[in-house]
Amino acid sequence: MKIHRRTFLATGVAFGTALSIGTLKPGRVLAAGAPYELPKLPYAADALEPHLDKMTMEIHHGKHHNAYVDNLNKALKDSDLLGKPLEEILANKAAAVPDAIRQAVINNGGGHYNHSLFWMTLGPAAGGEPKGALGDAIKSSFSDVKTLSEKMNDAGLKRFGSGWSWLVKTADGKLDVYSTANQDCPIMEGKTPLFGIDVWEHAYYLKYQNKRADYLKAIWNVVNWAEVEKRFAGK
């Protein structure tokens, strides 16, 4: 489904069957053959200012993310994989996807999943410290959130070109930080992504220009820890 910027800005785009606001399940099972849809931002485009500016959010969501959704639907239009959970499609380096379309599905399916997670794990009046089991796990693995942020920022700074910096839960339940290139998703390697920082230039260049480090520092002011905690708990 193509969402034009004018329509998106005027009316928003309802969360389709591909996503649920409360649970953030980008790979939710759809009706057979149903196309994936662009999720609505769970807050106003200017809600994350001054850390993330309105114009960047509008372009990032309404243009870049929408393009991933459109191209994913095109790649899978003649496949019986269309509408299946993205977790299932991307698992094991997308081994279930035919060779001819595998890289397109990794690029665009990963782009759809990663961005859907990104919007939900950010929010206004957020930041601060995680609580509960996630807070305990962060203390156990990294000592504190400050150290975690330093590790994720360092991974993001060292990612040459485009990609993501991730906090993930490994198969044995432990926390880890690493980066991926382009739109590769931790699901491809059997990890559960909890929080990812988009370090593609389109995520920050209008406000921060070439100062990726400043963007990485600023984004911690808008981390929605309640959503990250849900993912850690498997909800």
Tell me, briefly, the overall form: globular
The CATH architecture category of the largest domain equals Orthogonal Bundle
Distance between the termini: 28 Å
Largest sheet: 3 strands, antiparallel
Strand order of the main beta sheet, please? Answer: 2-1-3
According to CATH, the fold-level topology of the largest domain is Helix Hairpins
Q: State the secondary-structure class.
A: mainly alpha
Compute the number of helices: 9
Number of strands: 3
Mean pLDDT: 88
The CATH class designation of the largest domain is Mainly Alpha
The oligomeric state of the chains shown is: single chain
Q: Give the CATH superfamily of the largest domain.
A: Fe,Mn superoxide dismutase (SOD) domain
Record the SSE blueprint:
Elements: H1 5-11, H2 54-76, H3 86-94, H4 99-120, H5 132-142, H6 145-158, E1 163-169, E2 175-181, E3 192-198, H7 205-208, H8 212-218, H9 225-232
Antiparallel strand pairs: 1-2, 1-3
Polypeptide structure, described:
The chain has 235 residues and is mostly helical. The protein has 2 domains: 116 residues, Orthogonal Bundle (Helix Hairpins), CATH 1.10.287.990; 101 residues, minor pseudopilin epsh fold (3-Layer(bab) Sandwich), CATH 3.55.40.20. The protein is built from 9 helices and 3 strands. A 3-stranded antiparallel sheet has the order 2-1-3. The longest helix is centred in the N-terminal third of the chain and has 23 residues. It starts with a helix and ends with a helix. 39% of the residues are buried.
